[in-house]
Amino acid sequence: MEDLASLSKQASVFNRAASTAARLLGTAGAFGIAAAMVLIWAITGPFFHFSDTWELVINTVTTIVTFLMVFLIQNTQNRDSAAIQLKLAEVIRCTKGAHNALLDLEKSSQEDLEKMQALYEHLAIQARQHAELRSLATGTPPIPLKTNGAVMEATNSG
Known about the structure:
By secondary structure, this protein is mainly alpha-helical. It folds into two domains: 11-94, no CATH class; 107-154, no CATH class.
């Protein structure tokens, strides 16, 4: 495994551009500029006699901008999601009593995620009903996990 200190902090040109664009275009000022452009376009309608070309301008511009923004937003979402998953994995990994089986939970099937959610909901209900039982209310009770057909108790030794 590569040493984390050796990982580059320098993002690719595309990632830097995508991050900058997403940050700038997600502001109230960018929305104001876009709204002003639509207003200017609408006001110019009578000067162009509401021609097909006048309509084509706004249709073309909005289509191109929408097309490009989908990729910028998806790129930003993918990187943010990956970073959050890695941060959560590190918190789980280094927390005594955490369940290491949860480290790659995002790769589980929807059915398995729903089973895990039901287990945690059950723990929450038990903790609320039995607040006097400290191990359920604030501790880390064992959770039976099914891995490759075998049931095991998920715990983390720290």
